[in-house]
Write a structure and sequence with these properties.
36% of the residues lie in helices and 19% in strands. By secondary structure, the chain is of the alpha/beta class.
Amino acid sequence: MARSTMLAPLACLIFLNCLEPLISWPANDKDAPAMSHPEFDQYLGDYLQAGDTLALLLDYDGTLAELTSHPNLTQMSDAMRDSLRNIANSGKAFVAVISGRDVDGVKEKIGLENVIYSGNHGLEVLYPNGTRHNQGIPRDVADNFDKMIDQLNREVVHHGSWVENKRVSITFHFREAEQQYVPEMAARAKEIIESYGYRANAAHASVEGKPPIQWNKGLAAEYILGTSFDANWRQRKVLFAGDDTTDEDVMRMIKGTGRSFRVTKDKDLVTSADYKIPSVDAVYHLLKWIESRVV
């Protein structure tokens, strides 16, 4: 009878934990529970202490703002913006947003001054004081840019697809295209992009065309951290959150020293991130948790 009495509280705790599963799970654990209740203390409590200096790196689309049918429609919530502003202005956090958008476009969407913005997957960097850093693009490749867009518009833009011109890279979007045309148009877009010397890679309902230089979000993050945050940044606290394949380069770059989150509802997705979180709303809870540590 005494043994049953002792086990009762334990059984109750197990039952309550089943009712309130964690919002984050180890990245490649297929048996992890569904997520609904934020418990970032469990994953970051020993890593980031109150008063620590932090470098916070973030993607924009699908991370700070919900994905929409057209990039112009995305909106960052006021609550998310307020939390990010508080972190950036805390004096204890360095904040950079590394986006696939062009750098001026992502700054316009977020609208905060005390943040470093990097666009075109790291090819452009815009600092709070207005200075810029751009990776060099070979002249012969840059000269093909307008020709590439023209051919894409002529051959694969139809039934709801379109080309986003980001000045040094492009994205061929087919999120709103009729599904029956998508495989053929995506394959042809890849062929066209590569025929002009650009690199083509798959992204969320799109094909991206980027200059053929050895540069990505991970290298951009390393450059930004090394030149702007701290020369010894690998010994500091670094957090990153992103939702796309291009964000994996940042996750690999900080693996073992920082902590990273992949925004996805796919439990089977294999990622270099330390943890998965399911939504933009979960990113907001992550920012609020960080805010409680640095503000």
